[in-house]
Structures are given as structure tokens and as C-alpha cells.
């Protein structure tokens, strides 16, 4: 939700592979010409902000939304207390906090180990959001810029707010480059529709989103795949353990439109969960998964019993915990 239209960058429709290569090369030359002497020595970084965050307990987001029903929410001004003192351009830079993982990947000759570090870097970008769900960054205005030169981390980051929000907001583009920086493949498309590899005049469709089901607006915006996940037919019912999510009553009542019953069941199930946790803690016990085990590298893997039990069927013979 924004009070201006500038929070989504536009991507040009007419970027050729040659131009993309030239842009990348020009950017590399620009970065290379920034000498260490110009960057300067690393200074001591602050460890706190000038003031603590404000108390937002008296702000009701629901009241704000209710008072603006029918309006374009991108035009609705939100109280500044709902913002954090960072900009979206800075939040983009924040994804480089663990850039050393990319350094490790670049110096790892084994391609499989290299992907391990790349995957870790992709996950690391989420870490900073764990305690920040209650606030949003400021939206950059047109022409706003940000730089972050971190000689201690070995990267130089530049960002600029790259138009206003327009119908092309869903467009994405990227490139696969070799070690010398030459573009090998170019990717482009829309993240909610399809992704192509090649040029605008000659390309292959790599992925295309499935069509949405009829009247999807009425069904929580679910895709066809999502619509099928909670389906429970008679043939399947007899094969499932009683712990399967499809038997959970609060979820089932909500699907059926019985909001009151869903709320009652949700509270009851949550209380059961609290009681189970209390019993485990009081007896110094730890819940033991039934169908998974820890491997030598401390990751969870299947213990190979689930599908065997399903064949008999044998779930009815198990002493299942009361989850709901």
C-alpha cells in the first residue's frame, strides 16, 4: 500500500541482447574505475539508531482500509509510523548482507558445491524480514538514488528509481553470463504469466503459468492446483492417517463457508496444541516424527514407512495423537 506510484520500477520493452551486453560491460567499466583511494578507509559503523521505533499500538490498519473501501489503495496515504526508516532502494541492497556466500561460490570449482552456496545466498535474503513484518520501507520517488560502497564486503551497490508504476510492472528480465561477463542467455517475461529465453524476435518459452479456474476471485484466488489440495473423496479418505490436514475441522469449516464454526474449532485446536506442548515440556520429552528421521548431516529424510502403511492400509492400526 502506497501513497504514490513510484514503488515499482519499469523494465523497457525493447532491450536487445547486444544492448544488454553493452550495458553490462559499461557498468563493469564504471565500477572498475572507482579506485580504492576514492572509496576511502572503512569507518566505524553505528550500532543503534538515533531514536527507537514509535509505538504503533494506537494505529488500526483495518480502520484505515475500511475508511478507504472502493479507493485505489496505491493512492491512499498511510501514517508514517507504519514505515521503517529505510527506503526500498536500501532494502534491495540489504539482500547483499551475506554477499560472502557468492564469493565462496565463485571460488568453488565443484559446480554442485557452488549451487549449495548460491542456494544459501538466496535463502539468506529472507533473514532480515523475520522481525520486521510490522513495517514497510519508504517508497523511492522518481529519480531518487542510493549507493552503498562496502570495501569490507567487496561490493559496490548503486540504485536509482530505473520510472513510475505502469502496466509493465510485472515484467522481469535477466541474463546468464559466462565467467568473462558475456551474455550467454537472456531471460524475459512476466512473473505471473510466462518466462522466455532468447531475444524478442526469436525465443523459446521456458515456463508458462497455468490458466486460472473459472470464478477464481470467489475462491481465494486459488489456482486449479490449489483448489485440489484440500479435496477429500471417499476413495482417498480410507487411505489417509487421521493426522492428515484434510481432516482438520477449522480448515474444513472455513472452506465450506461456516466462519463461526471455523473460529470455534481454530481456538479449540490451538488450545489442544498448547496443552500438548505443556505436557511435553513438563516431562522433558521431545516430539518424535513418525514418518521422518534425521540423517547423518542432521537433515530430515523419509524413514520409508509412510507409503508401506498406506498400501495395507495400516494407518487405522496406529495409535494416532489427538490433534483436533
Provide a concise account of the structure shown.
By secondary structure, the chain is of the alpha+beta class. It has eleven helices and ten strands.
Outline the fold blueprint.
Blueprint lengths: L16 H16 L3 H4 L21 H6 L16 E5 H7 L5 H7 L4 H14 L11 E3 L6 E6 L4 E6 L10 E7 L5 E8 L3 E5 L4 E6 L15 H6 L4 H4 L11 H7 L3 H24 L9 E3 L5 E3 L3 H6 L13
Parallel strand pairs: 1-2
Antiparallel strand pairs: 3-4, 5-6, 6-7, 7-8, 9-10
Helix pairs in contact: 5-6, 9-10
InterPro entries: OSBP_sf, Oxysterol-bd
GO molecular function: cholesterol binding
Protein name: Oxysterol-binding protein
Structural class call reads alpha+beta
Mean pLDDT comes to 80
Order of helices and strands: HHHEHHHEEEEEEEHHHHEEH
- Work out the helix count: 11
The overall strand count is: 10
- Side-by-side strand order of the widest sheet: 5-6-7-8
Largest sheet: 4 strands, antiparallel
How much strand content do the residues show?
A: 15-25%
Task: For the record, give the distance between the C-alpha atoms at the N and C termini, rounded to a whole number.
Answer: 37 Å
What global shape is seen? globular
Backbone CA Rg: 26 Å
The poorly predicted ranges are 1-41
InterPro entries: OSBP_sf, Oxysterol-bd
Region (Disordered): 1-21
Pfam family, one: Oxysterol_BP
Protein name: Oxysterol-binding protein
Amino acid at each position: 500500500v502506497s501513497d504514490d506510484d513510484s514503488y515499482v520500477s519499469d523494465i523497457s520493452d525493447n532491450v536487445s541482447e547486444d544492448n544488454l551486453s553493452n550495458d553490462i560491460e559499461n557498468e563493469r567499466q564504471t565500477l572498475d574505475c572507482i579506485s580504492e583511494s576514492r572509496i576511502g578507509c572503512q569507518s566505524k559503523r553505528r550500532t543503534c539508531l538515533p531514536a527507537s521505533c514509535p509505538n504503533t499500538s494506537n494505529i488500526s490498519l483495518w480502520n484505515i482500509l475500511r475508511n478507504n473501501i472502493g479507493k485505489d489503495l496505491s493512492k491512499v496515504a498511510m501514517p508514517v509510523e507504519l514505515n521503517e526508516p529505510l527506503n526500498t532502494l536500501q532494502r534491495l541492497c540489504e539482500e547483499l548482507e551475506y554477499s560472502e556466500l557468492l564469493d565462496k561460490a565463485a571460488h568453488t570449482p565443484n559446480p554442485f558445491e557452488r549451487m549449495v552456496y548460491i542456494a544459501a545466498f538466496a535463502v539468506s535474503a529472507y533473514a532480515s524480514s523475520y522481525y520486521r513484518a510490522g513495517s514497510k520501507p519508504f517508497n523511492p520517488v522518481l529519480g531518487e538514488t542510493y549507493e552503498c560502497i562496502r570495501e569490507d564486503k567487496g561490493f559496490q551497490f548503486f540504485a536509482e528509481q530505473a520510472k513510475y508504476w505502469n502496466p509493465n510492472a510485472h515484467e522481469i528480465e535477466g541474463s546468464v553470463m559466462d565467467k568473462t561477463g558475456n551474455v550467454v542467455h537472456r531471460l524475459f517475461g512476466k512473473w505471473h504469466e510466462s518466462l522466455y529465453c532468447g531475444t524478442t524476435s526469436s525465443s523459446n518459452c521456458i515456463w508458462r503459468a497455468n490458466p486460472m479456474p473459472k470464478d477464481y476471485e470467489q475462491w481465494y484466488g486459488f489456482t486449479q492446483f490449489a483448489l485440489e489440495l484440500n479435496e477429500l473423496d471417499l476413495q482417498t479418505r480410507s487411505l489417509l492417517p487421521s493426522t492428515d490436514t484434510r481432516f482438520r475441522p477449522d480448515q474444513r469449516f472455513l472452506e465450506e463457508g461456516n466462519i463461526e464454526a471455523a473460529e470455534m474449532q481454530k481456538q479449540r485446536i490451538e488450545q489442544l496444541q498448547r496443552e500438548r506442548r505443556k505436557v511435553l515440556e513438563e516431562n522433558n520429552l521431545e516430539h518424535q516424527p513418525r514418518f521422518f528421521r534425521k540423517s547423518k548431516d542432521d537433515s530430515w529424510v523419509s524413514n520409508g514407512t509412510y507409503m508401506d502403511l498406506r498400501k495395507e492400509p495400516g494407518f487405522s492400526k496406529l495409535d494416532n495423537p489427538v490433534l483436533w
